[in-house]
Amino acid sequence: xxxxxxxxxxxxxxxxxxxxxxxxxxxxxxxxxxxxxxxxxxxxxxxxxxxxxxxxxxxxxxxxxxxxxxxxxxxxxxxxxxxxxxxxxxxxxxxxxxxxxxxxxxxxxxxxxxxxxxxxxxxxxxxxxxxxxxxxxxxxxxxxxxxxxxxxxxxxxxxxxxxxxxxxxxxxxxxxxxxxxxxxxxxxxxxxxxxxxxxxxxxxxxxxxxxxxxxxxxxxxxxxxxxxxxxxxxxxxxxxxxxxxxxxxxxxxxxxxxxxxxxxxxxxxxxxxxxxxxxxxxxxxxxxxxxxxxxxxxxxxxxxxxxxxxxxxxxxxxxxxxxxxxxxxxxxxxxxxxxxxxxxxxxxxxxxxxxxxxxxxxxxxxxxxxxxxxxxxxxxxxxxxxxxxxxxxxxxxxxxxxxxxxxxxxxxxxxxxxxxx
Amino acid sequence: xxxxxxxxxxxxxxxxxxxxxxxxxxxxxxxxxxxxxxxxxxxxxxxxxxxxxxxxxxxxxxxxxxxxxxxxxxxxxxxxxxxxxxxxxxxxxxxxxxxxxxxxxxxxxxxxxxxxxxxxxxxxxxxxxxxxxxxxxxxxxxxxxxxxxxxxxxxxxxxxxxxxxxxxxxxxxxxxxxxxxxxxxxxxxxxxxxxxxxxxxxxxxxxxxxxxxxxxxxxxxxxxxxxxxxxxxx
Lengths: 421, 234
Ligand SMILES: Cc1cc2nc3c(=O)[nH]c(=O)nc-3n(C[C@H](O)[C@H](O)[C@H](O)COP(=O)(O)OP(=O)(O)OC[C@H]3O[C@@H](n4cnc5c(N)ncnc54)[C@H](O)[C@@H]3O)c2cc1C
Fold this sequence. Notes:
The complex is a heterodimer of chains A (421) and B (234).
Chain A: H1 2-19, E1 32-36, H2 40-53, E2 58-62, E3 67-69, H3 74-78, E4 88-90, H4 92-96, E5 101-103, E6 107-111, E7 116-119, E8 124-126, E9 129-132, E10 136-138, H5 162-172, E11 179-183, H6 194-209, E12 214-218, H7 227-237, E13 242-245, E14 254-257, E15 262-265, E16 268-271, E17 274-277, E18 281-283, H8 285-289, E19 298-299, E20 313-315, E21 320-321, H9 329-347, E22 357-366, E23 369-379, E24 384-391, H10 398-420
Parallel strand pairs in A: 1-2, 1-9, 2-5, 9-20, 11-12, 11-17, 12-13, 19-21
Antiparallel strand pairs in A: 3-4, 6-7, 7-8, 10-18, 14-15, 15-16, 22-23, 23-24
Helix pairs in contact in A: 2-9, 2-10, 6-7
Chain B: H1 2-18, E1 22-23, H2 27-33, H3 35-38, H4 73-80, H5 87-95, H6 97-100, H7 114-125, E2 141-142, H8 159-169, H9 190-201, H10 208-215, H11 219-230
Antiparallel strand pairs in B: 1-2
Helix pairs in contact in B: 2-7, 5-7, 8-11, 9-10, 9-11
Bound molecules: flavin-adenine dinucleotide.
Flavin-adenine dinucleotide (FAD) is lined by residues 36-42, 62-65, 68, 71-72, 74-75, 106-107, 133-135, 158, 190-191, 194, 198, 284, 286, 316-319, 327-330, 332, 361-362 of chain A.
C-alpha cells in the first residue's frame, strides 16, 4: 500500500518537474500567492490556499529540493524505528491534484516595491501576497571551530536528509566503547525536545550495538523541555551511558576541532568518535534578504501571521518571531492554516475566521515509551500567547506510554497528508 | 434575505474575534508595583535570596521549594502537600499571604486590587520559563472560555466555519478517514460527535490532548465541526 503510493508519487514528481520552470507571467486576472519553502509551514499554506480557493488564486511554491525529508521522525530513523524513505515526501500531488505551480529553485531575493521574488536560476516571480516559510539557518561562529563547511565531519543533522543519514552511519561505525558528543544549542531553537529525543535514540542504538559506548551532551541551557521525563527514562533504560554537562559546569563554553576530532568543554579536551554540533539558529536567510527580520527572527502580527515590516508578506514556522509557540512542525502547520484563511480573505471575498493555534510534540525514549507536551494558543495584541497546556506525567503506566507512541504515528500520517495531500 | 444572513454571520465572526485571549496583565505597570516587594525580594538577572527568596522561575515551581532558602515550616509543608505557583495560586497568595498559608513568614499586608495583582503577575511571569523554549511552561495569558449550554444538541452547525476549524483536527485525525494510531472522526452522526466532544470538554473522557482541544471550543464551534465532519466524504 505504502510502496505503491510512493512509486506513484515518484513518477508524478518527474512530470511536475518538467512543467515547473514555466513560471507564469504577470498580467492575468487571478490574484497570485507565492510561497517560499515547501516545509511544514509552506507546503501546508500552499495546499490550503489552492484547495480552498478552488482555482480562484494562483499559487506558486518555490522549494529547491525535490524530496522533503521531515525533521520530525528523523530521530526515529537514527534510532532504527523508521527508514529514511518513510520520512521522504515529494511535491507531485501538490502540483498535479492541487494545481500548484511547484518551482524547484532557490529564492535569492525579494523586491518589495515591484512585488517580485528573484530565483537563483534567473527570472522573477510576481506576487500579490508572499508567504515565507524558509525554516532555519545557523548563526555564524556560534560554535568556534565549526562552520557549514565542516558539516560532513561533524554533522548537525538539524535539517533532515543526507545529514541525518551521515549521522546514523557515523553512530553505527563507532568503535567499541567510543564516545558520542552532542553540542546542544541555546534557546530559541527548532524543536525544544529534539536534541534530547536524539540522545534517547542514539542511546537506544548504542545499547544494542555498542553497550560500553558513552554519550556526552554539552548544553548551554540550565533547563530543557520534558527534562524530568527524559532524565527518568535515561536512568531507567540507559543507566550510566549519558552524561549531560550543563552551564554550571561549562557546557556553554565549547569549541571543536574537526581535524583532531576533539571537543573543548570549558578547557577539558574530549576525544569524540562522533560529534553532533547543533549550533545557535536564526530565520532562514531569505527572510533577512527580504528585510523582514529584526535581529535573528521575523516579527509577525499574531492574528494573521503577516510581517510587521510589510503587510503583503507573511512569515510562518521556525523563522517567525511570534511569542510563545515553540518552533515545531506542528506549530508551523497550525500557523499556516491561520495564514491561509487570512490570505484568501484578503484576495477573494471568502470568510475570515478568528485565529486559533495549537501544538503537540511527541518524543520517543525507547521502544513503545512515548511522551508528549502540548498547548493551545491565542493571539493577544502583542504576541501569540499560551493559554492552556498539558504534559505527560512521570510514572505513567506502560499502556499509556505505548498509546502515546501510537498517537505520534497517527499524527505523522495526519500532518504529512495535511502538508502534501 | 441572502444579504441579511451574511450580515449576521459577519457579526458573529466579529464577536468571536473580539474574544481573543487576554494577557495576564500589563507587565510595565507590574514593574512599578514590584516596588512593594523589592524590600524583600529580587527578580531578574543575578537575583539573590534576601529576606524572601528570589522570584525567578517562580511559575510552575512548587511552593517553599527553592533550594538554599529557609522557608517557614508552614510554607514548606504546603509545598510538600502539593501547592504549586501558578497564576491562580499566586493571585490568592499576593492578595493576602495568610489566607493561603496561615503560618507564612511573609509579612506583607496584601494587594487588594485584582488588576494590580494581574499586572504584577504579568511582570513576574517574564522571569519564568518561556513556552517557546519549554513548551510545558505555565500559560502566559488566559484564554476565552465558554459555558456549557443545556440546549447544545439543538444548535445547527455552520459547516463552512466547521471546515475552517477542522484544519486544527486534521493534523491528527486524517481527513480521508484513516485511523492509524488516532481514531477516525468522519461521517459520524452529528449528535454522537457532539456528545463525544462534550465528554472531553467536561473531562468525563480522559485524554489530555482532546480535553484541551474540546475545552477551548464553544458550543457553536462544536456544532459546526459536527456538521462539517458528519458530511465529509473521503
Ligand atoms: C531532529 C528534529 C526533530 C524534530 N521533531 C519534531 C517533532 O516531532 N514534531 C514537530 O512538530 N516538529 C519537530 N521538529 C521541528 C520541525 O521540523 C520544524 O519546526 C518545522 O519543519 C518548521 O517548519 P518550517 O516550514 O518553518 O521550515 P522547514 O520545514 O524547515 O521548511 C523550510 C523549507 O524552505 C526551504 N527553503 C529555505 N530557504 C529557501 C529559499 N531561499 N528558497 C526556497 N526555499 C527555501 C527549505 O529547503 C525547506 O524545505 C523537529 C526538528 C528536528 C531538527
